[in-house]
Every structure is written in C-alpha cells, then in structure tokens.
Amino acid sequence: MDSDTTVLAKATFAGGCFWCTEAYFERLKGVETVISGYSGGKKGNPSYQEVSNGKSEHAEAVQVYYDSTQISYQELLEVFFATHDPTTLNRQGPDYGKQYRSIVFYRTPHEKQLTEQYIKQLEDAGTYKNAIVTYVQPFKRFWPAEGYHQDYYKNNPDDPYVVSVARPKVRKFEDSYRDKLKPEYVR
C-alpha cells in the first residue's frame, strides 16, 4: 500500500473475480487503494488454492480504502451493483463457485441500511430481470490475497483472462463512469 490508509474509510465487496472488481474501484476519484483478497469464510489466512477449491468458504473480495469527502459509500454501492450481475448465485460470467458470490460486507448499521435500501430501489425499478441474490453480511475479517493478485489487471495486460473477460468489462465501465474517473483513466 502506497498511501496511509488509517485515515480513510473502508468498504469491502465481493462481486466475482477480484481482478475485475479491483480494476473498477481503483479508477474512481476518491479511492486511494484497493486490495484484492478473501472474506466471508471460516479459515484464517486462506490461500488462493483453498479459496478456489471452495475449502475455505471465502469469496474473492476487494477492500476499498476511500476518502469519504470525495466519494460516498452510496456511490461505491452504485458502482458495485453496476459492475457485476447481482442476480446470479455463485457465478459471474465464466467464473462459477461459491467463491464468486455477490456480497456487500457492511461495517455499520448505516451501511447495512443503505445497502438494503439500494437493493430495494433496484428491485422496485425493475433494473434486473431476475431477483437480486447479493448477500448483505456484517464485515468480520479480510485477508489480503497473494502479491501476484494485487493490481493484476494493470500488471498482466496480456493475460488471456484479462484480454477476453476483464478488459471489455473495464472499458465499458470507463465509458459509463467517465465523470467519476481519475484523470489518468479517462480515454
């Protein structure tokens, strides 16, 4: 981590492969650092192998460190729900398994309330064809993933998964959220 995260607010989300989720959030103005990791399971300090084979019960997640004077928790929720399919249980695109489930890990009663209200708003508006299956769970613990997972999208531009799955999604995100992007990500 390059910045001092002790003065920043934190939000933790699981929305499929953390390589994509990390790439979305790190592009936003007001977001200082995004860490890929694991949350929502029982085993302490799980490895990628343990998470991938379902033995730890964790989900691939990201921890977002942000300046709440520049971007709100509500705005982070809106990005989270817009950048993955919250109606598919244990699956995002080609990735399937419990480690790819959709979860908002709230830290405060207010975050829980905002999340539940936003889900209701999306459902009432008929935003999705199917019901939202995103879990809303209290935050307990976040375990950073192995170093090679951090900034994976940026550091591995030629990886076949990045080229075929992540890049099209990140480009679509950049086009849709141009006004919320850090200047270096505006194309």
What does this structure look like?
This protein has 187 residues and is an alpha+beta fold. The chain has a six-stranded mixed beta sheet with strand order 7-6-1-3-2-8. Strand 6, helix 4 and strand 7 form a beta-alpha-beta unit. 36% of the residues are buried. Helices cover 33% and strands 21% of the residues. The chain is built from six helices and eight strands. Helix 1 packs parallel to helix 6 and helix 3 packs across helix 4. It has a single domain, classed as Peptide Methionine Sulfoxide Reductase, Chain A, CATH 3.30.1060.10.
Shape: globular
CATH fold assignment = Peptide Methionine Sulfoxide Reductase, Chain A
Mean pLDDT: 95
Q: Strand-residue fraction?
A: 15-25%
Number of β-strand runs: 8
What is the strand arrangement across the widest sheet? Answer: 7-6-1-3-2-8
* Helical proportion, percent range: 25-40%
For this structure, what is the CATH class? Alpha Beta
Radius of gyration from CA coordinates:
15 Å
Query: Main beta sheet: strand number and arrangement?
Result: 6 strands, mixed
Taking pLDDT < 50 over at least 5 consecutive residues as the criterion, the unreliable ranges are: none
CATH homologous superfamily - what is it? Peptide methionine sulphoxide reductase MsrA
Total discrete domains? 1
CATH architecture: 2-Layer Sandwich
SS field, number of helical segments: 6
End-to-end C-alpha gap: 26 Å
Question: What structural class results from the helix and strand content?
Answer: alpha+beta
The SSE string, one letter per element, is EHEHEHEEEHEEHH
Enzyme class: oxidoreductase
Catalytic activity: L-methionyl-[protein] + [thioredoxin]-disulfide + H2O = L-methionyl-(S)-S-oxide-[protein] + [thioredoxin]-dithiol; [thioredoxin]-disulfide + L-methionine + H2O = L-methionine (S)-S-oxide + [thioredoxin]-dithiol
Active site: 17
Function: Has an important function as a repair enzyme for proteins that have been inactivated by oxidation. Catalyzes the reversible oxidation-reduction of methionine sulfoxide in proteins to methionine.
